[in-house]
Specification:
Strand 3, helix 5 and strand 4 form a beta-alpha-beta unit. This protein has seven helices and six strands. The protein is 38% helix and 15% strand. The protein has a six-stranded parallel sheet with strand order 2-1-3-4-5-6, sandwiched between helices. It is globular and about 45 Å long.
Length: 207
């Protein structure tokens, strides 16, 4: 990990730590002042994290006119299978027939991928993962996987070893570690572009 990445990772770690006192705000709920105009976006935190870690990402999404944002939380030691089942219930509850957009960091992305793989057709409009564990032989042909080239926890995939249907697209950001992916401007730009491309027709009209 080079010095630039170390600095950005320390800054990202500081931002994540400082986000925990804000958890009381999230738990109070984030009331809508008008009926949400976009289909649901569900954010999934990484192992040992919490929804407060994703407040900055949620704020960006709302600025990008995705005003129906919620958080999926799972116990630290819960099995992935149980988390996937729990996510399925949440997604079905929030979807209202329009499907959901899933964005997961680290282990949260793995949970989102596992759900999307067997989800009913149309249930998942977008699947975006940030530094999420993967396998070269996985089947996730619609997934946009975003990785840092200096991530010591989840190294970016090697293109030559990756199954053609393992991802829809892989983006590897330069001089980026694991934590900074949540805040990286290019990662945010990609997320916004992908969600806009997969909006429901009525949401595009409203935007």
């Amino acid at each position: 990990m080079n010095s630039r990445t170390v600095i950005t990772e320390i800054a990202a770690a500081g931002a994540l730590i400082s986000s925990y006192p804000m958890d009381w705000l999230v738990k109070r709920g984030e009331p809508y002042f008008c009926e949400p105009s976009s289909e649901p976006v569900i954010l999934l935190h990484g192992f040992g994290g919490g929804r407060s870690n994703l407040l900055a990402l949620a704020a960006y999404l709302r600025l990008a006119r995705f005003d129906n944002v919620s958080y999926f939380e799972y116990p630290r030691w819960q099995t992935i299978a149980d988390s996937v089942a729990q996510l399925g219930r949440v997604a079905e509850e929030k979807s209202d027939g329009n499907g959901v957009h899933l964005i997961g960091h680290s282990l949260g992305g793995t949970v989102a991928r596992r759900y999307a793989t067997d989800a009913p057709k149309g249930a998942v409009r977008s699947l975006i993962t940030l530094g999420s564990p993967y396998s070269y032989g996985q089947w996730s042909p619609t997934e946009v996987g975003i990785f840092g080239d200096d991530d010591p926890i989840v190294p970016a995939p090697i293109a030559e070893l990756t199954n053609s249907v393992a991802f829809g697209r892989i983006v590897t950001l330069h001089n980026v570690g694991h934590l900074a992916l949540i805040f990286h401007p290019e990662a945010l730009r990609i997320i916004g572009t992908e969600l806009r491309a997969n909006r429901a027709p009525e949401s595009r009209a409203a935007a």
